[in-house]
């Protein structure tokens, strides 16, 4: 009985994700689902990304959190539209939660929609939200061993932003080992070292987003 | 149907937790369930704790991870017995997983059993494992805002070890705000700042463990 129920729930999720995907395609909106542990710097990355790109693109953000409106407030201060989803205890966003808030987004006038998932390296990796791209942020204080320890997250994403490289002198993080472990789990993913704090490596990330937007329009 | 099923699952969990609790009490074993985000330093804390206490106490560790035997190997090198549970995708330990590996622990000859839960600030907070104490580790690079953002975790624990205080000069972490936010969620919990790296604050933590052991024997 439990298995049937789970299968049913996941099939409903897949349908909801497909619904979102078609809507995004129709409005020509690039959608990026960003996942990570709590505190890896997703919101800071979004603040800096929004600040750097908002003169060229119409940007919106969906913030997923267990509780509080803090992250939406932070990105709003960076000048972008933001909608907060409080999951009330759920450890991930699911595609129906996204579908429910899309009317607040005005997709017709949104070029890029970032979805900041709940801080969690496990559960969010199991849910397709209908996005174009799934990426993961891993911060250097967490350690490079998180890649083999949370393999599904690194398997379903196509880019691993290694954030807080400004802290590398003070923590143990082996970038070569990270590349090697990521390659073993997902040869088509890649590592991109950045510091949202001092901007190091950020140009490569902004270029990645711009290219993703051009590719999205070609579809 | 889903609600009935969930209720049923949670009731089974409560029974299993009670079974574990009675066993721990019978053997006079202090059991501490340690939870946190990935990469906050739980394993390093356990390595250092085991090294500091293993001449006075017979210590064992259960390591919970999605995948890999890495953490058990690390604490074994620190000289303690360790059993690894690979949850195969589950985002938390549950009391039946614990009960299943207890025969490998030799509780009769174990004074203190540490359970290192899966790195996750959400799911593990929902599961009683039958432990005497639940504590949470939050590392300074994660930011003090994780306390209000993950309230259940800080509600069910009675001690918040704030780890990596050696990184405070390089990150934004407001210890007073952390105290204030924790007090609002759980007035009976407290903050204890430590650095597993340089040992700062570690004596207070070791004293806490020793006192917990004495209290456990009095029961």
Task: Output mean pLDDT of chain A.
Answer: 95
Strand order of the largest sheet of chain A: 3-2-4-1-5-6-7
Uncertain segments of chain A: none
**Helix share bin of chain A:** 40-55%
* End-to-end separation of chain A: 41 Å
The share of residues in extended strands of chain A comes to: 15-25%
Oligomeric assembly: homodimer
Q: How would you describe what is shown here?
A:
The structure is a homodimer of 219-residue chains. Chain A has eight helices and seven strands. Chain A has 219 residues and is an alpha/beta fold. Chain A has a seven-stranded parallel sheet, sandwiched between helices. In chain A, α1 crosses α4 and α2 runs parallel beside α3 (70-77). Chains A and B meet through α5 of A and α5 of B.
